[in-house]
Amino acid sequence: MKIVDIRATTVAVPLEAPLRHSNGAHWGRFVRTLVEVETDNGLVGLGEMGGGGESAEAAFRALLPYLKGHDPFQVEALRFKIANPTASLYNNRTQLLAALEFACLDLVGRHLGVPVCDLLGGRLRDAVPFASYLFFRYASDGHGEIRTPDQLVAHAGELKAAHGFTVHKLKGGVFPPDYELECYRALAAAFPGDRLRYDPNAVLSVAEGLRFGKAIEALDNDYLEDPVWGLEGLRAVRERVNVPLATNTVVVNFEQLASNVLRRAADVVLLDTTFWGGVRPCVKAAGVCETFQLGVAVHSSGELGVQLATMLHLGAVLPNLTYAADAHYHQLRDDVIEGGKLAYRDGAIAVPSGPGLGVRLDRERVARYAELYKETGGYPYDRDPGRPGWYATVPNERFADPSVSLDVSG
């Protein structure tokens, strides 16, 4: 089995409403690049990468000379062909490598007739639990804003009723910390017995991170995620706050993981199959975390069904996955895979049981959302459509005004 072609298609899939975060917003859609790797026996493996648009499509096409004739079973060799650690100083192909690794694992699984999790050691669980990923958001196209504590609690309650979530993650860093603390406490009061986590995407100062962390110590926290920037900032907070700290921003490779092992800054490492360069590096990293008693969770970077499948296969095989995974998935209105969106049951999504990743592209949906991308284009992730001219600093002092209500429909 040898690779003969690589195809990439960028799509824009609508969200219920624009989601606000500490550095900007998702402007009512996720822009993702779908990758198809074809082999000489007629199989097609699927990958996915965030954003990129025409530049990502061109980047994948440019890799065909590297990979034409490559055996998809040779996944370790793929790493050095695409992302040699010294050559990557000049081309930074980690996310491209991840999408191609997804596709190769999909090909191998389809060729052998087994799911990807069987290639990774075999499943330990048949479904992966998820948290309700809660965002402050603008009103749009009939979907209400989420700005006040009451609106946030009502939305969390709707998600809990619909999907069975018992863990709730608040994406913060949008409004002043004291206001978001009020919102977080409202969640705790509304859902006694459920677990909580808060993530301001590293925009708090160390002083604010300490103050917020101390204020939530008595709540049922899973962890406080990236309250401040950097390993040293996290260490400063961890030393004085009695809440586990987690990160997905500053432990995203093995050098950083080694630093965190030698001098702990985060108690929980959120593994992202894109950020780490594929599913297999995440499995390796989880093994290191198991050895040194670090917690692991599965991170979400705004995936559609193809990358979600990689997250599910990863979650299936990790013995030390003691935290619910993150996913933006319930914020999407649709997906590009056959059958539409995968279903939540009791707060979890079943691990696909078909060969490879276990998902296939719905050609009509892909065509529709590729056309939507051509109509709408990309958007600046690190800008906010409701705050023209604003941009975040780290630490940030220019938070949004929680008294301002805005509809950004259209």
UniProtKB/TrEMBL annotation:
EC identifiers of the protein: 4.2.1.40
InterPro entries per record: DgoD-like, Enolase-like_C_sf, Enolase-like_N, Enolase_C-like, Mandelate_racemase_C, Mandelate_racemase_N_dom
Pathway annotation from the record: Carbohydrate acid metabolism; D-glucarate degradation; 2,5-dioxopentanoate from D-glucarate: step 1/2
Domain Mandelate racemase/muconate lactonizing enzyme C-terminal: 149-244
Entry's Gene Ontology molecular function annotations: glucarate dehydratase activity
Matches recorded under SMART domains: MR_MLE
Chemical reaction(s) catalysed: D-glucarate = 5-dehydro-4-deoxy-D-glucarate + H2O
Protein name per the record: glucarate dehydratase
Species this protein is from: Nonomuraea pusilla
